[in-house]
Inverse folding.
């Protein structure tokens, strides 16, 4: 009787919830997956190069604001989740999910250094009979062309000794309706055995899976989702600029247009794109397209429009100061309200607020900020000079000390009525005040 390949039993292990899941990277993507899988009865082993993260989790402490301590304590007390910085334990897992960042270089090219380093670590400890899944957003071909060759340096052969797949992360921090557990999971692999295995892994803890024919298709799905958002946001950003001198309110236009029950989907303008996906992912595709001699003109134009929005906001702030106080931006004192990239979370990745602060200060103003979710600006590669700046504590009197308040992030917990009442001027990039029912001559939309 012929011996069964070591990879043949992976799917059945997870169908019976006897497989152990390993998650590499315990950040905004990896940690929610760990919690969802453990809650569903899957045994989970989480890995992170920062030893403080596993230590905090074992103390029952969350380092992500949208995941409360109670959720960590609940899962840790179940005994189904262990976190570690000891990567020699990788062979204990039957499936390994790679959940690490994929940023851009300074030249807007893909930076796969985290993926490569993590894959090299796996290759050092890999054993036969494991499924490796890349979740990090990237260009079509990464799993097959970058990850697979590194793993095969171990002497193990893909498809025979281990399986390989791609499943794009779809995390939306702070979304109260959709989480890792109830968001459909796209899964792609380049052979049927791997496809069955990756589908079984995610089906053990998510509500539904969406299998596709290859890793390349799965990689393209994620890019398409985020490019769709980037392009449509660029469109409404441009419409805002076009309509403004015509005396047309883009926010009123969108509210009326979205009453059409077909053929329209509302997107909203803002101060620029933030987060780890939408500002970055389009450039992964444009870079890969050049390999095939294809120019992604539409996508690149959208990127240019979105990237220009912080400068538009800075100019509008300067104009508002001129009109309302006869005082220019040079020498003004500005309170930036909200520096997380979107409301009700503490995520600072690619936040347009950081660029705005730098641009405003370059024009001679002094800035301070208040953000109830971000007490201190963390270190970022692009905005290192802002590292360590602290949020001003909120009081209703706080706005009185500034020439203008610039609303960049529309956190729900802010009292916008008190803000407008006590501020000399409010420049609102999110329409937050009017959505809260606040109207004033001191309020300017940007």
């Amino acid at each position: 009787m012929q011996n069964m390949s070591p990879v043949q039993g992976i799917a059945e292990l997870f169908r019976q919830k006897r497989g152990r899941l390993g998650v590499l990277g315990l950040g905004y993507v990896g940690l929610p997956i760990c919690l969802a899988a453990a809650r569903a009865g899957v045994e989970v082993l989480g890995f992170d190069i920062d030893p403080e993260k596993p230590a905090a989790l074992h103390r029952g402490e969350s380092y992500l604001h949208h995941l409360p301590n109670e959720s960590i304590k609940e899962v840790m007390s179940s005994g189904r989740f262990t976190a570690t910085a000891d990567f020699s334990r990788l062979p204990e897992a039957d499936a390994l999910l790679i959940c690490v960042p994929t940023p851009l270089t300074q030249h807007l090219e893909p930076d796969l250094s985290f993926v490569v380093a993590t894959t090299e670590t796996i290759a050092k400890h890999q054993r036969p009979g494991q499924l490796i899944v890349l979740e990090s957003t990237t260009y079509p071909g990464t799993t097959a062309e970058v990850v697979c060759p590194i793993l095969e340096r171990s002497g193990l052969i893909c498809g025979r000794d281990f399986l390989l797949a791609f499943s794009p992360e779809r995390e939306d921090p702070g979304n109260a309706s959709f989480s890792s557990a109830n968001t459909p999971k796209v899964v792609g692999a380049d052979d049927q055995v791997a496809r069955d295995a990756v589908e079984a892994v995610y089906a053990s803890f998510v509500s539904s899976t969406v299998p596709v024919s290859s890793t390349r298709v799965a990689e393209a799905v994620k890019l398409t989702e985020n490019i769709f958002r980037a392009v449509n946001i660029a469109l409404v950003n441009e419409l805002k600029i076009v309509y403004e001198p015509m005396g047309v309110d883009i926010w009123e236009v969108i509210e009326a247009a979205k009453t059409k029950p077909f053929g329209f989907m509302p997107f909203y303008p803002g101060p620029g794109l933030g987060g780890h996906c939408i500002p970055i992912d389009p450039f992964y595709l444009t870079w890969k397209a050049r390999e095939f001699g294809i120019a992604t003109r539409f996508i690149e134009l959208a990127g240019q429009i979105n990237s220009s929005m912080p400068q538009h906001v800075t100019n509008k702030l300067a104009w508002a100061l001129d009109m309302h106080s006869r005082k220019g931006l040079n020498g003004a004192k500005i309170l930036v309200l909200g520096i997380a990239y979107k409301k009700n979370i503490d995520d600072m990745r690619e936040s347009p607020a950081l660029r705005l602060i730098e641009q405003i200060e370059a024009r001679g103003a002094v800035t301070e900020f208040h953000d109830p979710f971000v007490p201190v600006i963390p270190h970022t590669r692009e905005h290192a000079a802002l590292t360590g700046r602290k949020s001003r504590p909120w009081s209703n009197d706080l706005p009185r000390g500034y020439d203008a308040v610039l609303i960049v992030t529309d956190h729900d917990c802010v009292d916008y009525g008190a803000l407008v009442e006590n501020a000399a001027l409010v420049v609102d990039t999110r329409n937050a005040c009017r959505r809260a029912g606040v109207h004033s001559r001191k309020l300017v939309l940007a």
Summary: The mean pLDDT is 95. The first strand starts at residue 20 and ends at 24. The CA atoms of residues 25 and 48 lie 5 Å apart.
